Amino acid sequence: MSSRPSARAAVWPAPASAATGWSPQRHLLVTIAWCFGALVMVVHTAWIYAGHPEVSPARLWSDGAPFAVTLLLAAAVLAARAITVRYQRLAWTFFAVGVGLNGAGYFVYDVVGWAGRVPSASLADVVWFPVLPCFTAGIWTLARARVGAVRPEVYVGAGSVALLAASMFAALVGREVLAWDSDGLRATAVNLYYPTVDMVIIGSVSAVLTLAGGRLGRAWGLIYVAVVLTVFGDAWLARLVAEGGTGVERLDPLWSFAGLLIAAAAWQVPRRLTHQPLGLTELLTPLVSMVVAVLMLIVAEFAHLPSTVLVLATGAIVLSTVRIGLSLRSILVAAEFHRLALSDDLTGLYNRRGFLRGVEEALAGRAPTAGVRAVLMLDLDHFKDINDGLGHQTGDKVLSAVGARLAGALAPEDLIARLGGDEFAILTTVPAGQSFEAVVAGLFQAVRQPLQAGRISLPIDVSIGVAVESDAPDGTPEERALELLRCADMAMYRAKAERQGWARYDPLGSDQQRDSLELAGELRAVLTGTPLTPAVAADPERSLAPHSADCGWLELHYQPLVAVSGAEGIRAEALVRWVHPRYGMVPPDRFVGLAERIGLVPYLTRHVLQLALDQVARWRAEGAPVTVSVNLSASDMASPTLMDEVLDGLAARGLPPEALTVEITEQTAIGDLDTGRDALAVLRRAGLGVAIDDFGTGYSALSYLQRLPATELKLDRSLTTKILEDPAAAAIVQACIDLAHTLGLEVVAEGIETPELADALVDRGCDWLQGWLFGRPTPAGPTPAVPVYTRAPAADRVASGA
After folding, report:
1. Which pLDDT tens digit goes with each residue over 168-188?
2. Among residues 421, 444, 424, which one has the least CA distance to residue 377?
3. How far apart are CA 582 and CA 594, in angstroms?
4. C-alpha to C-alpha distance for 375 and 428, rounded to whole angstroms
5. pLDDT at position 571, please?
6. Is residue 66 within 8 Å of residue 40, measured between CB atoms?
7. What CA–CA distance (Å, rounded) separates 198 from 194?
8. How far, in Å, CA of 320 to CA of 161, rounded?
9. How high does pLDDT run on average in the chain?
10. In 3-state terms, what secondary structure has residue 733?
């Protein structure tokens, strides 16, 4: 009679290597067998549809024999797949048996035909009966990996589609087929068997197609086409038999071609399908199924279709209704889980995740046209005392009350969340013309109302930090949301520490200390030469350099010292800068103190000394007798090896001792006078210059100068810049210059920015001048800058009062 192929599967395990595809090169015998069977079928089909099957070149002992051969070859191809490849062997074994029995049925049919007229229920049907169950078993065995992982409601939806497809098939075959046969019980059973099992197969195909979300791979596409051909052939055959028609032989190519398609599907690369969440397709499938089933009922009523159509369509409606109910329940459950995932159980407000998502969505949209978007971080003051003194139950009541008060003080479009503990966060838009003070004042007014806890009136207070959208200008919405929350958090902690109620984030002020940990790690990489990227590590020159491409590098800028009053030489002070990839040129006051706190000063000093000595060596090689001044810190003075390293650095470069002057502040020298004096004495005896820097900013203990082995005194700009307006400052400077000269020290005046100030200090006896008047610190050039002091004209000095 016929054969019944099948449908489609999902979530495929990884196939064995032998099942990587139907490749003629790798499966030559399989290819030859399949192609020969296809050739026999095509040739014989052409003669059948031409009306001359008896003269077909492919005809053997009967008109049906070529199709039997085709089906047996297809069964052999399927058997080869099942034998040689372990992956899903059982499924393809079912298909091989089914296709083989379908072909064998033709031989039995011919044998029965040789004995006389073939009845409607013959011995051939006994061979053909297992064909359809084998195909059905193959379908569900292939689909097992997929259907074992889906939700129960998807099975219900698949069942409704299966019943609907079966009802449509029943309507196709008609009332005549699904009726009692006049030839008796056996003929009726045979005639009803094939349409009934066809309804099961078409339902199975539709169910698996629904379970897989409508996504067909190549293998399952071939199986699906084979099922359609089989079902169509069976329906056509049933109608012909019921109506007493002829031309049954025209249906044999359909079943043979279906067998070849299943054989081809066995050697296709299976498509891996992944689970999909509840989506529009799954929601619409039961609705469409219900509508079509209702239409089937209407058509069945007016067209007098078999009662089987009514029963199957009614079942499809029932299952579709159940499926819709289950889908709605899934949606409600998913919505509740979503709400719980984004909300705080105690207050009912958003939690951290929900708040960040809301901020991300706001940042991804348009900026407000009349106002500024701001994030506020709030932290309850002394909340720990409430928890510890009155218990967590009272603390929870306080948190709930504060959440309600904040929500009542905000606009409906504002976003409020409890981040955890006693921290709350708010996303709001401050209208143009309204100050942050007004917004914060409204929150204070709402929160600071006393809260009654039994007989105790609890005072409630809060500290607030404010950050605006421009505080996080760069990055994705997710990154900006996290940065805004961090900025508001920093401002809140500053408000709490300073007891000022609220504070706005200051990107250039004290809040910048938040970057200290990040900067500390980067500074360590720069000073220790730790390469932080594979590219740096792979490059020998860059990996040995004392900086990382990720963190920038240190370079020295040089500011000249100008000689006056007979002083001689070319001098410059080396000032370190950090060239940072994100922050640009970082001045020393941003990282020198950080280096001191994390113990990196020895590395910093050695690095600066090496750069300075290398540059002096280059200048002196060009014939410029330059002396460079380098600053030392208090920890450098305590180092037992640094002084020797300084001398070794000079010797290694062939530099004379006078090429280097070390500078120490007066606080450094006086802080540990004995240690500082001994260390400086070593350098002084070797011939290096020793300068007391920033004199006038610290102790200014003149008596200590005679105990330090210094060669010069550098007057800080806090003293020098006042001498033109402040007679007392002028007298102090004059006294310092005189004392220094008495002790044999040269005097350097810092902070010189005008010619009048330079002349006034020269008149008081300064030997060297340093300041922006003669040049700002700049990177080293091929030759050192040598500015010259020129006295201002007398008229200018009189006008300035010098």
Report:
1. 666 666 555 555 444 444 555
2. 424
3. 18
4. 7
5. 93
6. yes
7. 6
8. 8
9. 76
10. helix
